[in-house]
Design a protein that fits this description.
The complex is a heterotrimer of chains A (445), B (71) and C (300). With 445 residues, chain A is mainly beta. Chain A has 1 helix and 24 strands. Classes of the chains: A mainly beta (445), B mainly alpha (71), C alpha+beta (300).
Chain lengths: 445, 71, 300
């Protein structure tokens, strides 16, 4: 193959293959007739990241053991395939939304097939939930042109009463010598809720065992998320980012298992109910009702600062939505290297939220029912504090391992104007105390 | 509305940051694993899920992984 | 008679897949990796390779007095008669000068006098460069094999081909001398004699495209790899970075050159030439490499 290597204009960007001429010249130099053709291939790399998690709340509440794994396959040209698997096993009890009473109470299980009781003075907890959840994610990421990165993926999860299916895509572009990155992404999900016993009609009573006359079937909801972000290198040691998120949920947003106590206007005690022969609720409890729409806006900012080997990671997030919930989250991590390969990382997080507009401790039986109401403590007014410590090291094969232990405490308060009668003297808000233990192992092949 | 103004303001400030930054050969520290914006994606996903289940806010950093019945 | 300078020795250590014979030559850490168990063979092979590497270093180094390069550089304007091996290298340099349209030029070493790449900000004036440029240019050289005549003030520097040439010579020796396959690696410029039997391929690691990218792993079964460039040698002035690859036609560093280029080719000489030529293309490095139809890695 003859190659023309005449004089070309220096500004000519069209390149010519010089391989043949070079090969001939090299053979002449080395005194060989022909060299064996090169056989070189770049190996696609695997990156495994797995962890085992234990999450446990006190007072016999939720306990979760979770196995999580993300596998990434790195191809040539920075293309990456990610596959994720999570398996959760949940046990334990969760507050059902009813308030404490001075006497014992009984409730019908969501399935409608039996009842359970709560001793006098105790916060009513439903322990029906022993569930296994499996979630998978898949994602593809590849460069787009000189400075772009495009990614797309899907997610799915299944529990006995819940199915999630979602897709997502995003694009990021580097500017300014890769010092600035702008990104935009969206996600769309359709979730199906298949409550045990069927979705109850909102604001109807909890019925006796065996009576499912106020139950419907399955429900669903759509969630659309949008994220716009910018990250900026400030100096050799400092990088910051800011994200704006928008989330829109439409459809069935209720928790089908939660109720509100229907109470007397003076005493604030739950109106009594005589359970049927097979068992049933000891009082009047109405199933909750939330709007069928929710719009959330968040602003998240983060900074990472390197100080002589130590790294400070601080972030702040503000969230507001049309349920009138406002929240602030401050999260600080401080990584301290120990020797060449190990590190210690204390962690502190402070969270505070105000209650949803329709949050109610209970429903006054003498008043008109509000359009929406829920006593779910997760929609209430509370502070959450997390304090933890993580320790990381490298194994003999140069792989990463870490363990962390954290304590999470939620303490909430009910707006005083919501107290009716005897309620004011009781501890109504179900404070949460949980411990988080996680072991992680990360290795490449 | 106030949030919208705050966000636009922040993004404009960052757009004005076009003169800020470092040269490619000064990125040694920024390249370290512990200086990545998300150092441990597994831990981040775990925390996101825990706090999504126990609080009324979610995400911030991004999204992905999807919903669950734990709310 | 093999005369070794003091301090020259070969150290033999066991590796997971065989042996490694290590020594220092041509300003780089060198190693001979053998595939498989025979220690004595590895020892003999390493000695043979080291001897050849030191022979080439002594013969073509511009730092040593009395060798052919020194003779050439001090004889101008007299002609110098060179031996077969040197003539081969000069023929190769001549071909490369044409092939690269003057960007690869073994007489460009004297530009060193004008530039010091220490990360500082002292850059020479155009006048300083013009003075030195008068002594640069292969077209001013009279090469009528086996006679080479330089103009006064000119020098040749075989540093740009010497190491890769040595790797290929040593690989040829290794192919003949040993019954096990080996990899000859002189400071990142390497060649293999053939595919190993203890595993599926020789594993070579390369740094990722950006500092944040993962290290890449290459399976090499046949052929060679070479790397050009060094991100650590540069000058910084008024925010402009001057890399250390000088264009012999202008006397100035090539603008927008990648930090380093690694190429896989049939021989180390070819790989080295292609990576050097790519660097000299500056901004056009990737376009150039893409057209050559071989495996390459460009690090910015």
């Amino acid at each position: 193959m003859a190659v023309d290597v005449g004089v070309t204009d220096m500004s000519d960007s069209k390149q010519r293959s010089i391989s043949a001429t070079l090969a001939a010249a090299t053979c002449a130099l080395l005194g060989t007739t022909a060299a064996t053709p090169v056989d070189a291939q770049e190996e696609p790399r695997w990156d495994f990241n797995t962890s085992l998690l234990y999450y446990g709340e006190d007072d016999d509440r939720v306990q979760d053991i979770s196995f999580k794994s993300i596998i990434r396959r790195l191809y040539a040209d920075d293309r990456t395939l990610s596959l994720g698997l999570t398996v959760d096993t949940l046990t334990g009890a969760t507050p059902n939304g009813a308030i404490r009473q001075d006497g014992p109470q009984s409730f019908t299980r969501p399935s409608g097939s039996s009842a359970y009781t709560e001793p006098a003075g105790e916060l009513p907890l439903d322990d029906t939930f022993k569930d296994t959840r499996v979630a998978i994610t898949a994602g593809w990421q590849q460069p787009a042109g000189e400075s772009g990165l495009v990614s797309a993926g899907f997610s799915a999860s299944k529990e006995y009463d819940y199915l999630h299916l979602g897709v997502n895509a995003s694009y990021a572009h580097d500017f300014n010598n890769r010092n600035t990155t702008l990104s935009a992404g969206f996600a769309f999900a359709n979730d199906s809720i298949e409550p045990v016993g069927g979705a109850p009609m909102p604001f109807t009573n909890m019925l006796d065992v065996g009576d499912t006359s106020n139950r419907g079937g399955d429900e669903d909801k759509d969630v659309f998320d949008l994220v716009l972000g910018v990250s900026q290198v400030i100096s050799k040691n400092l990088v910051v980012q800011a994200n704006y998120s928008f989330s829109q949920s439409d459809g069935y947003l209720n928790n089908p298992y939660k109720v509100l106590s229907f109470v007397d206007e003076d005493t604030g005690d739950t109106l009594p109910n005589i359970p049927g022969p097979n068992g049933g609720p000891s009082g009047q409890f109405l199933f909750e009702s939330r709007p069928d729409e929710r719009t959330q806006h968040s602003l998240y900012t983060q900074a990472k600062y390197y100080m002589n080997g130590k790294v400070l990671d601080a972030s702040y997030r503000y969230m507001t939505d049309d349920w009138e919930i406002d929240s602030h989250t401050v999260d600080i991590r401080y990584r301290i290297p120990l020797g060449e390969t190990n590190y210690l990382e204390p962690h502190f997080r402070y969270y505070t939220q105000t209650e949803a507009e329709f949050y109610r401790l209970s429903l006054d039986s003498s008043a008109l029912l509000p359009p929406f109401a829920s006593s779910d403590y997760r929609l209430g007014n509370f502070d959450g504090i997390t304090a933890g410590l993580k320790y990381g090291w490298k194994t003999r094969n140069d792989n990463d391992m870490s363990i962390r232990a954290e304590w999470y405490q939620q303490s909430g308060s009910v707006p005083t104007e919501q107290f009716i009668g005897n309620q004011a003297s009781r501890d109504n808000y179900p404070d949460l105390n949980a411990v988080i233990l996680q072991f992680s192992y990360r290795f490449s092949r | 509305m106030r949030l919208r103004i705050l966000t636009i303001g922040l993004l404009l400030v960052c757009a004005g940051c076009t003169s800020m930054g470092v040269q490619p050969w000064e990125r040694e520290i920024l390249a370290k694993e512990e200086m990545q914006l998300t150092t441990d994606p597994l831990e981040a996903a775990t925390d996101d899920h825990i706090y999504f289940s126990k609080e009324a806010s979610s995400g911030g950093r991004g999204f992905g992984g999807g919903g669950c019945g734990c709310n | 008679m093999t005369k070794h300078r003091s301090g020259r020795q070969v150290e033999l250590v066991a590796t997971e897949h065989g042996w490694a014979g290590r020594f220092w030559a041509m300003g780089s850490p060198c190693e001979v990796l053998t595939d498989g168990g025979d220690k004595h063979q590895a020892d003999v092979l390493s000695s043979v390779v080291a001897a050849e590497a030191w022979r080439i270093e002594d013969k073509f180094s511009r730092y040593l007095e009395g060798n052919i390069v020194h003779q050439i550089n001090t004889s101008a304007p007299e002609a110098v008669e060179v031996d077969e091996e040197t003539a081969g290298l000069l023929d190769f340099a001549a071909t490369l000068f044409d092939l690269s349209e003057g960007q690869f030029d073994i007489t460009s070493g004297v530009l060193r006098a004008a530039w010091t790449f220490d990360g500082g900000n002292r850059i020479p004036s155009q006048k300083d460069i013009d003075v030195v440029l008068r002594c640069v240019g292969w077209r001013h050289v009279k090469w009528n094999r086996p006679f080479l005549t330089l103009r006064p003030g000119m020098e040749i520097d075989l540093g740009g081909i010497g190491k890769e040439y040595a790797v290929d010579r040593c690989a040829a020796l290794a192919r003949d001398a040993a019954s096990v396959e080996s990899m000859i690696n002189f400071g990142g410029d390497l060649a293999v004699t053939g595919p190993p039997t203890t595993r599926d391929a020789w594993k070579v690691g390369i740094e990722g495209e950006t500092p944040e990218s993962a290290e890449r792993l290459v399976d090499l079964r046949q052929g060679a790899m070479a790397t050009s460039g060094d991100a650590r040698r540069f000058l910084l002035r008024d925010g402009v970075r001057y890399g250390h690859i000088l264009d012999p036609r202008t006397g100035w560093p090539v603008p927008d050159a990648p930090a380093s280029v690694t190429v896989a080719a049939d021989t180390c000489t070819q790989a080295g030439m292609l990576s050097t030529l790519a660097m000299l293309k500056g901004k056009g490095a990737e376009d150039f490499l893409a057209v050559q139809d071989l495996l390459y890695w460009c690090r910015k």
